[in-house]
Amino acid sequence: MIFAKANITFVGSISVFERGWVVLTKNQTLGPNDIRSALRSWIHDRFELKQNDILINELGFCNKDPNSTIDNSFRADLALANGRLVGFEIKSEKDNLKRWASQMVAYNNVFDEVWLCVHSKHLEDGLKITPKNIGILLIDDYESVAIVRHAKLNNNNNIYDLSGLLWREELNTLAKLNQIKINSRTTKNEVREILAENLSINIVRDYVLTQLKIRKSHQYSNSSGLSS
After folding, report:
1. Residues 61-118 pLDDT 10s
2. SS (H, E, C) the chain
3. With a threshold of 0.85, does the pTM exceed it?
4. Residues 48-67: tens digit of each pLDDT
């Protein structure tokens, strides 16, 4: 049996304890895909998703490396676009938190809201090392999800890193929409630097959210056409 002590609100099949010991009877070891499935269901309920809201599995993003011309690459296990950009990192029982220190900085540079979803094995250490603006979710071996700590709005977004979610053609269009001239020989990262110097975070965020939804709708249309 697994015991955890925290101020927790549970969503799912487990009883609610505002303060005290929560007993979790181990049933099976959940892998990342199992947790992602349970997390998707929790997100649908928690955020009351509308038709235009989208969930993206394994959204790749990047952060600028000050010591290199090549950006550092990361991947959000789940991302939600619903008027803001929300990132979710999953740490299953078989995972560890070794990379989380760099990952949480990267998430904060891109996402408006960040959640760490952990197995109880990682809860204590996760609480110790994770900034308080990042929400923490606990998932048990029955795939029930509990809020250990709510996420707060992140104000540390970096325009350059956020714009890394855009394709080159999308970056060119964003520049054109805002009367910013881009030379055809300008590299993608140079375009991002120019946009970061000339645009507000709100303009870039809104455009990124729009493009993510457009891509998703195109994917849906293409898959529907193939199956018809």
Report:
1. 999 998 898 999 999 999 999 999 999 999 999 999 999 999 999 999 999 999 999 9
2. CEEEECCCEEECCCCCCCCCEEEECCCCCCCHHHHHHHHHHHHHHHHCCCCCCEEEEEEEEEECCCCCCCCEEEEEEEEEECCCEEEEEEECCCCCCCCHHHHHHHHHHHCCEEEEEEEHHHHHHHHHHCCCCCEEEEECCCCCEEEEECCCCCCCCCHHHHHCCCCHHHHHHHHHHCCCCCCCCCCHHHHHHHHHHHCCHHHHHHHHHHHHHHHHHHHHHHHHHHHC
3. no
4. 888 889 999 999 999 999 88
Two tokens, residue 29: 């070891």
Residue 15, C-beta contacts closer than 8 angstroms, at least 6 positions apart: 22
